[in-house]
Amino acid sequence: MVTLEQRPALAELSAPWDELVDLSPLPSPFLKSWWVDNAARGEPTILTCRGDDGSLVGGAAFEVDRVGLGPLGIPRVRVLGHGPLAPDHIDVLAAPGHRADVLAAVCGWLRSGNRIVDLDGLSADCEVPWLIDARLLSRQVAPYRTLESTDPVAELTGRLRSTIKRTTKRLAGSGFEPRLVAPTDMERALDTLFHLHSHRWADRSSWSSSEAGPVAVDASSEPGQATSEGALRRTLLAGLRCGGAVIHEMTDGSQVIASEIELIAGRRVAFYQAGRLTDQEFRGSGSALKAEVLRWAVREGMTEFDLLRGDDAYKDDWANARREVLRVRIGSGGVGRPAARMMDTWRRLAPGVARLSSRLRSGSP
User: Fold this and answer.
1) Which residue range forms the structural domain that includes residue 123?
2) CATH code where residue 277 lies
3) Torsion of CA 170, 176, 177, 181, to 10 degrees
4) 157-170 pLDDT per residue, tens
């Protein structure tokens, strides 16, 4: 048996919680304490389970908001960090020998009261969906690369290896080389990453939303001057400061032309986001930088390079395996069940409504 406790932050339980993350079958950086204590947009709701001796033996991290208007609103439980921050491979944590009891406690809480449970980014191996009889809303592919050799770049396709080799040589001739950012330079590096990402992907990425806060692009400004309140920046800085995240840059010492950030859990490293300048002279810099990240990961003893969810075409060049992440939903209680059914109905109808609205605005028959 376990005792379940609901709390707003991990606080003194951060260290044993992180040990459970690293010992899990698929360690996820989105379950690490630095993420859990910073990434929530709703009310952080962390479930911890203690054994008979009082030690932490499991838990799960959620956030709670409300859907509906005024007194008609009901609580909604979501994965902590749900939305633009896109947490992946989420699961219940449990120490060996305690998983059944922890799952029973967490799932019992999820099914209690009037609420909607909407969990996006669950590991495909997570037992929660079938234990609470939740409706599967979607599956997303999540490519990754196993790191089994001392030179993972040598295992890439010939075309990509050629691009990396030519680009690395050309950029080196101009003084540009990849580097791992030092801990003392993390805030500046994160501001630079936001700027480069906005420069390259502003029209396609959720990082360009207000979630991240405004991006400081003036090199003369203080690091983080305009962005310290952004949930994304705050969360990533927490990871960088404790060693749960790293940034690599392609630079000549005065100018950064490409940057990317990785998140770490156990012996897995996850590519989270990147940015680069699009000038013709810097073409291929992103690939050359990512090749160095792969080599760094091997030197650090990592066994997997996770590209996270999404079937973007470029991921096929770097991955050699795939798995899935799930989104599920269920309503509980006399109000939660019909509310969840209404949300499911709207999810089915929304694409057709959007198409009809577009046709009406354009005057098409």
Assistant:
1) 3-142+323-362
2) 3.40.630.30
3) -150
4) 999 999 999 999 99
